[in-house]
Amino acid sequence: MTTSLSGKTILITAAAQGIGRASVLACLAAGADVIATDIQAEGLASLADEAGKSPRLSTALLDVRDTAAVQALAAQCPPLQGLFNCAGFVHHGSVLDCDEAAWDFSMDLNVKSMLRTMRAFLPGMLAESARSGGGASVLNMASMASSVKGFPNRFAYGATKAAVIGMSKAVAADFVKQGLRCNALCPGTVDTPSLRGRIAAAADPVQAEKDFIAR
Ligand code: NAD
Questions:
Q1: Residue 130 CA to ligand 1 centre (angstroms)
Q2: Can you give the pLDDT at residue 3?
């Protein structure tokens, strides 16, 4: 087992399933203390079981759309060395399918959630980085959508992920000299429960799966 993250505390949002959950398990395997958060209590409980009730894992219900809840959790947590903003939602459709409510929901969950967590956790991360000289890292989940190319029916999604990239570059520029790195992660198609849901919801699921892999 590698222990490259030993002694570091990392908070991960949307950790009950998919990429967030896999990231929790990978960080634990690398020796980190992990705070796994999500809105799904059952998913967090099964994650704790899968992690063998590791004493380095704590879980917390957290809706990243709730500013007061984010601030309350930040007030309770030890200083973080890592923050992984993983939460995100895929709106399906073009600009003509995206009314203002759909736009606002995607912007809130995919982008403003990161404003909330960074404003809540960065002061503690910067203070700890200055104290220990150890540095800190923020990772914001973007996507291949927008960073590499546009995809059909990903109007709101692509717009939010482009915003995440711009926001992450700005945070990096503002704080890298204080030892805080900020990066945006831009995966291609990843086999997760929500991807399976999008495939199942397609008119032709077999073709939809082929299309997701081909892109
Ligand atoms: P997923 O969609 O399978 O799971 C999403 C998780 O987010 C769930 O556990 C859900 O409970 C949680 N969640 C939903 N609303 C929340 C809220 N308000 N507060 C906190 N948690 C909330 O996850 P995934 O497919 O692994 O995607 C995770 C991230 O990766 C997203 O930002 C997504 O846009 C991005 N991404 C996914 C893929 C892919 O192919 N799966 C590709 C590129 C980027």
A1: 32
A2: 60
The residue-averaged pLDDT of 188-202 equals 92
109 DSSP 8-state letter: I
Whole-number percent of the chain with pLDDT over 90: 92
Q: Which helix (H) or strand (E) holds 116?
A: helix 113-132
- Asked if residue 71 lies in contact with residue 94, where contact means CB atoms within 8 angstroms, the answer is no
Nearest to 13 by CA among 139, 122, 127: 139
Torsion (CA) 147, 149, 112, 5 in degrees, nearest 10: -40
How far is ligand 1, taken at its centre, from the CA of residue 87, in Å?
A: 5
Query: Which among 17, 154, 186 is the best mutation to test ligand 1's pocket, defined by most ligand atoms within 8 Å of the CB?
Result: 17
Q: Is 157 a catalytic residue?
A: yes
